[in-house]
Amino acid sequence: MRLAAALALLLCLGVLTGCGTSRSPGAARSAPPAPEVTVDEITRFARLDMPPHPSDVQTGGESGIDRLVLLRFSAPATEVRDFLTGSGFPAPKKGAQGVQSDLGTRLGWGLDELSGTEGASDDTGDLVRQVTIDRSTPDRPTVYVAAFTV
């Protein structure tokens, strides 16, 4: 009888502490949303020269011991070219993916699924900047930028 009572108590404690879950095995946990960061904060921190007509702008970031900012936008191809040179990025290379694919995961970027990209990065000693350009829409490419302290 004592054994049955002990087992019943353990079962109740397991249920109360959440040992059971309704999530199926292998199901991905949803990541918490990335903190809001303004475009102005990102451009100052990452030393970027934004194009005059960006659209579909998305921002995110993380702060702790180090800082990470993320920026995505689309713009006319000539403005993307001017953004890259005005921001001081090295010439992007075809097939290269400058932004580490896992950095944009919280924002749903799916960088590892893109094809036809160009990428570049630079390291100033205190700041690493990475850029990936998705040219699947040639007249209005999408630009992904990650910048973080080291």
UniProtKB/TrEMBL annotation:
Organism superkingdom: Bacteria
Keywords: Signal
Signal sequence coordinates: 1-27
Protein name: Uncharacterized protein
Lineage per the UniProt record: Bacteria, Bacillati, Actinomycetota, Actinomycetes, Streptosporangiales
